[in-house]
Amino acid sequence: MYASALMAFLHHVAAFSVVGALITEVVLFKPPLTIIQARRIQRADQIFGATATALLIVGLLRVIYFEKGADYYFTNGFFLVKFSLFILAALISIYPTVLFISWNKTLKQGEVPTITPQAVARTRLCLMLEMTAIVAILLCAPFMARGIGTLG
């Protein structure tokens, strides 16, 4: 019982951290950037990646070992949508992460990274799509937890 509660706690901490890091990226990514702003965006993206990884690992541990079991979750449409949206958000996050990493050399030289208007638009779109996926995940969660959407 304690292990299950602890895993739920870790899952929630990771989920809130993912949201916080993503919101930080959205708020900070407003070109023209300063060096400090660019470094903070990079840090927020690193936190986003680390906490998303923790969220995935803890979530899968909960599914397999600590909650209702894999049979329950993998036969629930809302879980499958939730999990798919998480993977989709992770894939969408690749573009901003690659952009932010590409700033390393410029930032080490003490210069502000140059970003094309197209890259700004694509990055903002990716960040908004990630936020949208998170909102949809939050919509699916209570239905899944209550056994709504069980397939077959």
What order do the helices and strands come in, and which of them pair?
Layout: H1 2-28, H2 35-66, H3 70-73, H4 77-92, H5 94-102, H6 104-108, H7 117-145
Helix pairs in contact: 1-2, 1-7, 2-5, 4-7
Please, could you describe this protein's structure?
It is a single chain. With 152 residues, the protein is an all-alpha fold. It has one domain. The protein is built from seven helices and no strands. The radius of gyration is 18 Å and the shape is elongated. The model has no long low-confidence stretch (mean pLDDT 96).
- What does the radius of gyration come to? 18 Å
What string, H for helix and E for strand, traces the elements in order? HHHHHHH
Query: Which whole number gives the mean pLDDT?
Result: 96
Q: Based on DSSP secondary structure assignment, what is the total number of beta strands? A: 0
* Low-pLDDT regions: none
Q: What key phrases describe this protein's structure?
A:
152 residues; 7 helices; single chain; elongated; mainly alpha
